[in-house]
Design brief:
alpha+beta; Structural Genomics Hypothetical 15.5 Kd Protein In mrcA-pckA Intergenic Region, Chain A; Pseudouridine synthase; 4-stranded antiparallel beta sheet; 6 helices; 28% strand
């Protein structure tokens, strides 16, 4: 739906404006539409706090209703770290972080509610404790806040790009020469390739993201750890956390993540077994502890299917 703003809407917040046009929908749900990139102002993504000028066209794709509250389920958790303020879990591929888009059970949040008596409330009753997310088929380390103070302090670090997120990815192709979209940088005594391409919702497929000038800024650094004929194992660092960021950027330069059919990887790569995930793993996260102010680095071991594939590809 497209809605034309008018002089009556001058200086209104975007979320307030939409709540008035969708009176049957809570403001919290409208804000979730905005966070999920379902709202554009003049064909560009915007924040809920955007103040309108009365001359914009607001495009809205409402999301289906989701449960108003998460529930506990007896699901095993692989804990990497725990103290009075935070938890770090090793999320398996295939597990959704929180309910939405028709998924109500089997989520990480449901498992957390079964294991912990108290989690932060900043994210609301659907996302207790959740400070950041990983895609369903991305495995690896994910931080959870036990209380609101820890959540708020961690969230500020993410907003200020002070959290170091390191991933490992198996990609199609060898990094033989520098891509025109990348530039070479030196960090920690190593040479990396840096991609800086804005990312927004794909204009044709809502489930996809794409690089587009009107999108949000996104920065991805990567380097090859090992290479074999036809494949590479990359170490990837991101300072921004856009939806599908690593997958979009690597696909854009012709190196989709193995198994990632949404972004151009073949469904059945020659010589490989059937793949039931894409091979992206959140290997490490570094941050300042919200209570002690000490720098912490937490690492998630590679899952068996990941090491099996790298061994098969001689990476």
């Amino acid at each position: 739906m497209e809605i034309q703003t008018s002089a009556e809407d001058i200086d209104k917040r975007l979320d307030v404006f939409l709540s008035q046009h969708y009176p049957e929908t809570s403001r919290a749900r409208v804000q979730q539409w905005i966070r999920d990139d379902r709202v554009q102002v003049n064909q560009a993504l915007a924040r809920a706090s955007l103040r309108l000028r009365g001359t914009e066209v607001v495009s809205v794709e409402p999301a289906p209703a989701t449960p108003l509250k998460a529930f506990a389920e007896n699901i095993p958790l692989d804990l990497l770290y725990e103290d009075d303020d935070i938890v770090a879990v090793n999320k398996p591929a295939g597990m959704i972080v929180h309910s939405g888009a028709g998924a109500k059970s089997g989520t990480l949040v449901n498992a957390l509610l079964n294991h912990f008596s108290k989690l932060s409330t900043v994210g609301g009753e659907l996302r207790p404790g959740i400070v950041h997310r990983l895609d369903r088929m991305t495995s690896g380390v994910l931080l959870v806040a036990k209380n609101d103070r820890a959540h708020q302090r961690l969230a500020r670090q993410f907003q200020k790009r002070q959290v170091q997120k390191t991933y490992w990815a198996v990609i199609h192709g060898r990094i033989i020469k520098q891509h025109p979209s990348a530039r070479k940088i030196e960090a920690d005594g190593k040479w990396w390739f840096r991609l800086e391409m804005p990312i927004g919702r794909d204009a044709h497929q809502r489930i996809k993201m794409s690089t587009r000038p009107t999108g949000r800024s996104a920065q991805t650094d990567f380097r090859a750890l090992k290479q074999s004929p036809g494949y590479s194992l990359l170490e990837v660092r991101i300072s921004t956390g856009r939806t599908h960021q690593i997958r979009v950027h690597l696909s854009k330069i012709g190196h989709p993540v193995v198994g990632d059919r949404l972004y151009g990887a073949p469904a059945t790569p020659e010589g490989l077994p059937n793949l039931d995930r894409f091979y992206l793993h959140a290997r490490q996260i570094g941050f300042v502890h919200p209570a002690t102010d000490q720098r912490i680095v937490i690492e998630a071991p590679l899952p068996k299917e990941f090491t099996d594939l790298t061994r098969l590809l001689e990476l």
